[in-house]
Automatic annotation (TrEMBL), chain A:
Belongs to the TRAPP small subunits family. Sedlin subfamily. This is Trafficking protein particle complex subunit 2-like protein. It is found in: Cytoplasm, Perinuclear region. InterPro entries: Longin-like_dom_sf, Sedlin, TRAPPC2L. The keyword Transport applies.
TrEMBL record, chain B:
GO terms for biological process: vesicle-mediated transport. Pfam families: Foie-gras_1, Gryzun-like. This is Trafficking protein particle complex subunit 11. Belongs to the TRAPPC11 family. InterPro entries: TPC11, TRAPPC11_C.
């Protein structure tokens, strides 16, 4: 049961035209999917605040990892923003202590690489929901690992 | 059990203050006592010492002190903390009892009074038997006391009184009842505060001393109790640092206790109390991070201490309270100046409290245990957090209801916090939760209001999954309230493309909408409360019976309905004589076809609306046209003829209405503002333009939805003119000539062009100077002057028959060179008939032409000697020749009419100068010359140049022009050529003038002549002085300075005279050839003496 909860909904959000709609979202277990969606959506408050703060003070611009967004009772929510302002969010069970900052960071990096591949596909229209099998299987393998 | 059980006891939440009892005061009947009491308790500001005062009667019974236990060996504690303990020490057992007694030092009956006072003290002492409470006596005196040491009687009697009452000198106070009452009171209470501090100190010592008797096996509870008591006494002593330390110790001890089914509630309760105290003190010490860390630890430790599964809801309730209290503490700290941040604010705690409250409700709904394990007796329990295991009353219903209100209150608290800390999405989410809570409490109207409010946020953020879930709840609410309009509106969105519902769900909802349109009650939504459904069905039936023929208008622009609409004019502009064409595209994404009964377009000019309607009544379109097939784009075309008065105006689509249902059922109008589109369409259109996807070939008459763009407005522009306007002219124009342009207008209309009007001239909007230097006239026979305008507006030209030609010459005069744009505008009206309608069309045709204006010829003038040698200067009275060269620059042959030399008075012609170029025609590049013989009469005043005159020439290419030129004559010398200079001195006075003249040497000149001379000049005569200067250097040179002294008039200085003299001369470099001996330069100086 615990491992089931350890799954993460992944989310890629586009910032173009100031929008924050989901490009890709996946969660394990799927029964509380709605709750995860809400969690991810509300975490965008923090993401936006952090992104705008980065804009004000030019910190290290290459640091895309936003770190722990906020802790809830049951989950930890992490954020990542690409240079083109596409946002990644990972939610993990807060009891999952095997995932430290470094693990989360490398997960984001993997996601980002895979996302770049999706964007390089000439048949993918930026802004459309991602329906790539390769991306899917990459996310699945990452979820299996963390569970 | 009431939920209030979970509220923290007030004695825990208040700030503990030292308790001091005042006796012997009659505050009801004695005004002096009343004033004293008021001074103690009224207006206690923060700078006064923290004491809580109470007036008690002198014989008040204080709580009895139990006999002190000498050994804990056989003692087994029954609980951690007694329920009355905190209150006892806050409000019942004083740290100090103060006895007020009216007694002056010079009291005559001193002995009696003293013994009475001693008796009163004794009574107080007796009732405090066994306690460490201090006793103090305050003497209320009418007289102001003398300084200490002076009143011998006072010190004696004070000592005696102390003795009699068995008091130390420190516990006896005097309160003179004078003007400075408040000052005395403040001093008194500071003294009381010290006594209280001592009391609490001894209490702490006393509690601590028990420790050595305890053992770890049986007295674990006492360890906690003693730490708590020490901490509480420290707080009373206002020693918050130590209090915090003891509370922390108590907290860690409590988690060392063995938990089992019977004491788990007690442990959690006490842990909650202590945690509350710790967090409160941390916030008070301005260490909020410590408070948060402590709270997290507390939650982590207690989260798993659920106890019996049946009582899980009780645990949830307790958790909820823990979060709520922490949220309150946090919020209070913020009000006192703490700053919170987005990710750490009280909102999170309220949200979590709400979450646990919901959890509690959910667990309670699972089934309440039949013998209520929570029932507590109405009486007070001995220890905090213990249960009296009784059987009896069922109270779960009221418990559930209160719980619901609590959840909503907590959620709205959290909403307020998140609003403050810039978390709009968190706020929306909580509002959704509130809406759902209201739905569960059957307050559907409130639920709907909240859900409707946040729906648009999710819509604009395009989180369709969340929107679908909210819409589902909203649909249930509107169904249960039988709100037709809302029901249809939510249904349409749930059926539409933004909804993430499964196909079968969409199908079900669409069928329900169809029922509503037929005025039948829809089927109930799944997951509704069966009893509520019954009520709702009755409501729907009622609605159905009363509401036939009512029109519902739904604004669909801001939602994502199941029918999409795009309206477009075929062109951004239409000519008046062409019918305006308009297409409306409809697409439905519902699972079943949608039948509509009317489609109408509203335009900004409502007169056209009648032409833009599709309904079953009118031209009776085929039935299949009125039925929208899912996924297929349907097109409806409209055309109408615009009105002539709309020419130049914009026609806009103000709205599109689609009517569903029929008159005998219910009519629902879907209304799109403007040219259609909805909350999702703009983004979809953008994505479609970006997409590289190949679209499959569509059948001939079908359209791909994504390729349709909205064109909500069009311009009505005037009919295309069918006349030709030709301009005949030969550019470039010449400066100042009357330039002729022939305007030829020819009609290609089939009918008569009426009211032809010509506007011609300089096109407006060019450089303002051009309109001053350009003049236009229709009359080419006369020269234009400045009174003519640059643009001739609306010249009436009458009617023009088909194929008729009309010509109009136009004369333009440009007085400066450069390009100009000229406009020829022809306007007329024709009567035409379009689609059976007669309309009067105004047409106009514009022609513009750019005309360059150039200089026609150049005139050069030079002076030559009679031998045609070049002359740089002329000599007085020596004839010379003036030659003019006229070079034609015009591309056209130039006809020189005549020329005339108008000489200035300084020049004179030798003979009668007649024009020599009269009637000469010059081709491009050719030039003509004239020659005049002139002389210069003697010039009086010494000037270096004279004006020669004007040369006027009349010419034409087809018009004429005047030209003027001016000349100046220079005077100069040459290097190493002698320059004769004559000074001419005239005496105009009536006396003989004696003049002394001298010429100063100069580097630039050698000279010959009289260097210094004295001479006399008779009245009216004149004298010439001749010098020959020989320039040595070129350029502007100072002439040798001539000094003149008038011996008879010493007042007239040489300076004054020098004003008349030229002081400089230009010296030219000499020719290589021999100097012209025949040419003579002379300089003249005239002196005039006036007395």
């Amino acid at each position: 049961m615990m491992t089931m909860l350890g799954g993460e909904p992944f989310l890629l959000v586009s910032k173009q035209e100031q929008q924050n709609y989901p490009l890709y979202i996946r969660s394990v277990p799927s029964d509380s999917e709605l709750k995860f969606h809400y969690t991810v959506h509300t975490s965008l408050d923090v993401v936006e605040e952090k992104v705008s703060a980065v804009g004000k003070v030019i910190v290290d611009q290459r640091e895309l990892y936003l770190g722990l967004l906020y802790p809830t009772e049951d989950y930890k929510v992490y954020g990542y923003v690409t240079n083109s302002k596409v946002k990644f969010v990972i939610v993990v069970d807060s009891s999952n202590t095997s995932l430290r900052d470094n693990e989360i960071r490398s997960m984001f990096r993997k996601l980002h690489n895979s996302f770049t591949d999706v964007m390089c596909n000439p048949f993918y229209n930026p802004g459309d929901p991602i329906q790539s099998k390769v991306f899917d299987s990459m996310v699945s393998s990452m979820m299996v690992q963390t569970c | 059990m009431s939920p209030a059980q979970w509220d923290l006891p007030p004695e825990l939440c208040c700030r503990p203050m030292a308790f001091v009892a005042l006796t012997g005061l009659d505050v009801v009947y004695n005004a002096v006592h009343r004033a004293i009491w008021d001074a103690f308790c009224a207006n206690r500001r923060a700078d006064r010492v923290p004491i809580s005062f109470k007036v008690l009667p002198g014989d008040h019974e204080y709580p009895k002190c139990r006999t002190k236990r000498t050994s804990y060996e056989w003692y087994i504690p029954k609980g951690i903390l007694k329920t009355g303990w905190m209150n006892k020490h806050l409000n019942l057992v004083p740290a100090l009892v103060v006895l007020f007694y009216e007694l002056d030092w010079d009291e005559p009956q001193w002995k009696e009074k003293q013994s009475e006072c001693a008796t009163k003290v004794e009574i107080v002492r007796t009732s405090l038997q066994g306690r460490n409470t201090k006793v103090a006596v305050v003497l209320i005196q009418k007289k102001t006391p003398l300084p200490p040491g002076e009143d011998v009687m006072a010190s004696e009697r004070a000592a005696a009184l102390c003795n009699a009452c068995d008091l130390s000198g420190k516990s006896l106070f005097v309160l003179p009842h004078t003007d400075h009452l408040v000052g005395y009171i403040i001093r008194l209470e500071n003294a009381f505060y010290e006594h209280a501090q001592t009391y609490y100190y001894t209490e702490i010592r006393r509690v601590k001393s028990h420790k050595e008797f305890l053992n770890k096996t049986t007295h674990q509870l006492l360890f906690v109790r003693h730490q708590f008591k020490t901490a509480f006494f420290s707080e009373l002593k206002q020693d918050t640092q130590n209090a915090l330390k003891y509370y922390r110790a108590a907290y860690s001890l409590i988690h060392e206790l063995r938990t089992h089914e019977t004491n788990i509630l007690e442990i959690k309760t006490m842990a909650g109390f202590i945690n509350y105290k710790i967090c409160r003190l941390c916030f008070q010490h301005n260490t909020p991070l410590d408070a948060i860390a402590q709270f997290r630890k507390h939650i982590d430790l207690c989260k798993k201490k659920i106890g019996s599964a049946e009582l899980a809801f009780e645990h949830a309730a307790w958790m909820s309270k823990q979060f709520q209290y922490f949220g309150d503490l946090f919020d209070e700290a913020i009000k006192l100046g703490l700053t919170a941040i987005q990710t750490q604010n009280p909102g999170f705690y309220y949200q979590q409290a709400a979450h646990y409250a919901q959890e509690r409700k959910r667990l309670a709904n699972l089934g309440y245990p039949a013998p209520d394990p929570l029932e507590t007796p109405t009486g007070i329990l001995d220890f905090y957090g213990q249960r009296a295991w009784r059987q009896g009353h069922q109270i779960s219903t009221c418990f559930k209801l209160v719980s619901q209100e609590l959840i909503i209150a907590l959620l709205s608290n959290a909403v307020a916090q998140f609003k403050k800390y810039k978390c709009p999405r968190m706020k929306s989410r909580l509002m959704v939760q509130m809406g759902e809570e209201y739905y569960h409490t059957k307050d559907y109207a409130k639920a709907l209001k909240l859900l409707d409010y946040v729906m648009c946020d999710y819509r604009t953020e395009r989180w369709w999954g969340l929107l679908t879930s909210i819409l589902g709840t909203a649909l249930r609410c509107s169904y249960l309230m039988a709100q037709v309009k809302d029901y249809v509106s939510y249904s349409m969105e749930l059926v539409g493309r933004a909804s993430m519902l499964r196909e079968d769900q969409k199908s079900r909802i669409q069928k329900n909408v169809a029922k509503v349109l037929k005025n039948e009650p829809p089927e109930a939504e799944p997951d509704c409360d069966p009893s509520a459904v019954k009520a709702a069905q009755a409501l729907w039936n009622e609605r159905g019976s009363q509401a036939s023929g009512e029109d519902l208008i739904l604004e669909v622009q801001d939602s994502v309905p199941f029918v999409q609409c795009k309206a477009r004019f075929l062109h951004p502009s239409f000519h008046l004589d062409v019918p305006v064409q308009l297409h409306v595209f409809l697409l439905t994404d519902s699972p079943h076809p949608v039948r509509f009964s009317k489609l109408c377009v509203s335009l900004s000019n409502q007169d056209y609306n009648q032409y833009c309607v599709v309904d079953s009544l009118g031209q009776a379109p085929a039935q299949e046209d009125m039925c929208l097939v899912p996924g297929r784009t349907h097109r409806y075309s409209f055309r109408f003829v615009a009105r002539p008065e709309d020419v130049g105006k914009k026609i806009e689509i103000t709205g599109v209405d689609l009517m569903l249902g029929s008159e005998n059922g219910r009519c629902i109008f879907l209304n799109w503002r403007g040219g259609g589109g909805d909350a999702a369409s703009s983004h979809e259109a953008l994505q479609a333009t970006r997409s590289f996807k190949r679209r499959g070939r569509l059948p001939e008459n079908e359209v791909d939805w994504d390729t349709v763009s909205i064109q909500a407005s069009t311009m009505i522009i005037s009919r295309v003119p069918r006349i030709s306007v030709q301009l005949h002219h030969e550019p470039p124009a010449l400066n100042n000539e009357m330039y002729c342009m022939m305007v030829t207008i020819q009609s290609h209309e089939d009918i008569v062009a009426r009211d032809l009007k010509l506007t011609a001239g300089l096109k407006p909007g060019q450089d303002a100077n051009l309109s001053h230097t350009t003049h236009v006239t229709l009359d080419g026979s006369k020269m234009c002057d400045d009174s003519h305008r640059a643009l001739l507006p609306d010249i009436p030209m009458g009617d023009l028959q088909p194929q008729e030609k009309m010509e109009k010459p136009l004369s333009i005069r440009c007085s400066t060179t450069g390009p100009r744009i000229f406009l020829v505008h022809v306007a007329y009206t024709v009567d035409t008939c379009i689609e059976g309608r007669d309309i009067v069309c105004k047409c106009h045709k514009d022609e513009t032409v750019t005309i360059e204006t150039v200089v026609p010829f150049e005139v050069a003038v030079k002076f030559v000697s009679t031998k045609f040698e070049h002359l740089e200067h002329v000599f007085v009275d020596v004839p010379f020749l003036l030659m003019t060269d006229i070079l034609s620059m015009s591309p056209w042959p130039l006809h020189l009419v005549t020329s005339e030399l108008q000489l200035a008075p300084t020049m004179a012609a030798v003979d009668q100068p007649a024009s020599q170029v009269e009637e000469v025609v010059l081709q491009t590049g050719e030039s003509a010359s004239e020659c005049f013989c002139l002389t210069c009469p003697p010039v009086h005043h010494g000037t270096t140049g004279v004006a020669s005159g004007q040369y006027v020439m009349s010419w034409k290419s087809c018009c004429s022009l005047i030209n003027t030129q001016l000349f100046y004559l220079p005077s100069f010398g040459r290097v190493r050529e002698s320059l004769p200079v004559k000074y001419h001195i005239q005496n105009r006075t009536a006396i003989v003038q004696e003049v002394e003249m001298s010429v100063e040497p100069s580097d630039a000149f050698m000279f010959s002549g009289l260097k210094q001379v004295r001479l006399r000049i008779l009245p009216g005569t004149e004298q010439d002085m001749l010098y020959n200067f020989y320039p040595l250097m070129a350029g502007y040179q100072m002439l040798p300075l001539l000094n003149i002294n008038l011996l008879r008039l010493p007042a007239v200085s040489g300076q004054l005279l020098r004003r008349f003299l030229p002081s400089r001369i230009f010296i030219k470099v000499t020719f290589n050839g021999p100097a012209n001996s025949g040419i003579e330069t002379s300089m003249l100086a005239t002196f005039t003496f006036v007395s």
